């Protein structure tokens, strides 16, 4: 134990040599330290740029996905409307086909305009008129 105390006491009393070699080593160490600081700064700036680019890309992807979702919803609504219009068109085509049939036209005219065939008698029932008046009164 006595040796350790002597060595520590001896090292604290040692003065550093100030020659050209020692100064060049100190300058080299300072350059290396400055290089490490500059490297750290460059890496920090590069990391920030990468982070900003990542955030920008993320926001762009999110906005585009929202736009795509809106367009998909509009497309679905348009397809539903198209399907409804196609059904209506099919019904109208069927009605056109029926209107080209003379028997159908005759039946429609008898029903709508109370026309009769030869030998037919048309009766109107008073209950229907009373029911129509009651329904009209209920709606008001």
TrEMBL record:
Transmembrane feature ranges: 39-59
Superkingdom of origin: Bacteria
Protein name: Septum formation initiator family protein
Coiled coil, from the record: 68-102
InterPro entries: DivIC, FtsL/DivIC
Lineage, uppermost ranks: Bacteria, Bacillati, Bacillota, Bacilli, Bacillales
Keyword Transmembrane appears in the UniProt entry: yes
Keywords: Coiled coil, Membrane, Transmembrane, Transmembrane helix
Keyword check for Transmembrane: yes
